[in-house]
Amino acid sequence: MARFTTGPINNPSVSGSRSTQKVSVLIENSDSTNASTVLIEGYILNGSRILYVQEVFLVSPDQVIRREYFANFTAFEFVFTTSGAGAENTEISVWGKNNVGQLVEAHRVVSEETDHI
Question: How far apart are CA 7 and CA 59, in angstroms?
């Protein structure tokens, strides 16, 4: 089992709007024979740490899964827990998107940038 975090992502309001409105989480299991299980936990950070996303699912061998979550908050964080025989070959990335679905480069966290916890 491994745990990863994006760390806190700052998303302040500028002229009445935040740059990131939603987050796209991309999960890839590149193991050709073993599945993995992924737990996604999303937190609103506003002086407290409030859980607002909690989802667990099976990622089959050679499968890619995308999940979309609301993220119009001043700050947020995602934590991922992977387990199962394919966990070592499961990579996760997080992509902030604006109100028209365009990527927000400042809120991109690829697998190599997540912190192990």
Answer: 23
- Helix (H), strand (E) counts: the chain: 0, 12
Tokens of 23: 């987050």
Take residue 21 and report the two structure tokens written for it. 């409105």
- Identify any residues that bridge with 77 across adjacent strands, giving them in sequence order: 43
Map residue 112 onto helix, strand or coil: helix
pTM: 0.90
Per the CB < 8 A criterion, the answer to whether 19 and 71 are in contact is: no
Contact in structure between 25 and 108 (CB atoms under 8 Å):
no
3-state secondary structure (DSSP) of residue 48: coil
Residue 113: DSSP 8-state: G
Structure tokens at 116: 């192990």
Relative to beta strand 115-116, strand 36-45 is unpaired
Q: What is the pLDDT of residues 66-79, one digit of tens each?
A: 999 999 999 999 99
